[in-house]
Amino acid sequence: MAQFGAPRNPVNWVSHLTAAVVSQPAVKDPAVVERANLLNMAKLSIKGLIESALSYGRTLDSDYPPLQQFFVVMEHCLKHGLKVRKSFLSFNRTIWGPLELVEKLCPEAEEIAASVRDLPGLRTPLGRARAWLRLSMMQKKLADYLRCLLMRRDLLSEFYENYAVMMEEEGTVIVGLLVGLNVIDANLCVKGEDLDSQVGVIDFSIYLKSEEADHEREGRNVHISAILDQKNYVEELNRQLNGTVSSLHARIDTMEKSNAKLIEELAIAKNNIIKLQEENHQLRNENAVIFMKAHQHLEAAKASIEAEQMYRQHSRHGLSEIFTDICTDHEDSELTQETDSDLEPVRMQHEIELAVKLLEKDIHEKQDTLIGLKEQLEEVKAINFEMYQKMQCSEEEARERDEDDELDERCTQMPSARKPHEQSHVLNQSRSIEIASYMKGASVDSAPQYKMIKDISF
Question: Which residue among 53, 81, 350, 415 is least packed, with the fewest CB closer than 10 Å?
Answer without folding.
Answer: 415
